[in-house]
Amino acid sequence: MRIVNPSFGEEAPGNEQVVANSVDWSKDPIILFSNSKPNAKELLEGLRDKMSAYRNTDNIDYTLKDSPAQPAAEGMYDELAGKYRAAILAIAD
Amino acid sequence: METAAETEILDLDEMDQAEWNEYAFEQGWGDGFPLVMPTEDLVEKFVATCHGDNEPLPAMSPRRVIPTLQAMAANAVMAGARPEYFPAILAAARAVLDPAYNLHGSLATTHSCAPMVLLNGPIREQLNVNCASNCFGQGRQANATIGRALQLILMNVGGAKPGVMDRSTQGTPAKYAFCFGENEEESPWEPFHVRQGYGAEDSVVTAIPSEAPHNINDHASTSGIGILTTIAGTISQPGANAIYCNAPVFLILGPEHAQTLHRDGWTIADMQADLFKRSALHISKVSKENQVSYEEMERPLVNDYYPMVPTPEDIHILVAGGPGKHSAYIPPFGFTAACSVRIAHV
Question: 0.80 exceeded by the pTM?
Answer without folding.
Answer: yes
